């Protein structure tokens, strides 16, 4: 890993004595990458952004920017800009003046302001919109004005707090592409907040999955999707089938009363574990060819695939994504490959998890 541009070291946030909002959060943000804080409402995502931006103070712990402790540096002296969820544009100013606002405060010469504002608007594909009133812009356009206003200051880090949540699905998807492309073109570090797992998977170089004031797992989208550390992450990131099982020995796991070959290891013999199999990794087959025998309960057509809900003999639910239809009420087989079985330990720390995966994969 390169030199971190932002680091949190055991950051704790408390508003009063009994409520701890952030519980010892530590992470490193590498320069030039797209990071996403992903987690349910109230888990502390905005709180982390506010501490980075300097709008809120860490109760304990240290915040570093390029290796220097910045806990006591005021917000306006940090090389960070924020795009807020509600955009916080000035409604009585036109597009140009909204974007130029920060530069005027810095008393930059007029010519230079003009050049920079035009360039920022061009980058968000709003060239020519300088004289439009904010009230005459669509939601997606306002969102781009907010981004232009942030990037015109040439921050080293751009913080984006759920900037797409007010947009409809189509525009949201378009903006995901645009933001990702903009980040790559500018090469500056983005820290993006969302509670939408698909958005996080699509856009990020690195995801920090948060729950209840803690980062529970960090990694690339593929790492997190393929190797969720625990039940919470498996359930929150993507659709999952999760059942209880026993790790008999390395590469051999038992669930639903049967033993299966798998590719995990490094646990104790006969350790109680949880098993994840993604719906797209299950396929429908005959009972004889199936590894599990299940009863088809319901199915829904989802456009690209059928979402089929089945139950095994122990009444565990199995969701299957299949391009083939099933017959409701019928008994069928489900097949899957050893590498489709993901084994999770109870209460494993991220350090232990990473170390186990590393030693095991060698
Ligand atoms: N000024 C404050 N005083 C007291 N508690 C606060 C304050 N600001 C936030 N909190 C609490 O801190 C917790 C985390 O809030 P935060 O805004 O960081 O969540 P979030 O992950 O951004 O959620 P959302 O997805 O809903 O925006 C919440 O329980 C919230 O009620
Ligand atoms: Mg928030």
From TrEMBL:
GO terms for cellular component: ATP-binding cassette (ABC) transporter complex. The keyword ATP-binding applies. It catalyses: ATP + H2O + polyamine-[polyamine-binding protein]Side 1 = ADP + phosphate + polyamineSide 2 + [polyamine-binding protein]Side 1. Keywords: ATP-binding, Cell membrane, Membrane, Nucleotide-binding, Translocase, Transport. Signal peptide: none annotated. PROSITE patterns: ABC_TRANSPORTER_1 (PS00211), ABC_TRANSPORTER_2 (PS50893). It is an enzyme of class 7 (translocase). It comes from the Bacteria. One of its GO terms (molecular function) is ATP binding. Its EC number is 7.6.2.11. Residues 6-237 form the ABC transporter domain. It holds the Pfam family TOBE_2. The complex is composed of two ATP-binding proteins (PotA), two transmembrane proteins (PotB and PotC) and a solute-binding protein (PotD). Part of the ABC transporter complex PotABCD involved in spermidine/putrescine import. Responsible for energy coupling to the transport system. Belongs to the ABC transporter superfamily. Spermidine/putrescine importer (TC 3.A.1.11.1) family. This is Spermidine/putrescine import ATP-binding protein PotA. The gene is potA.
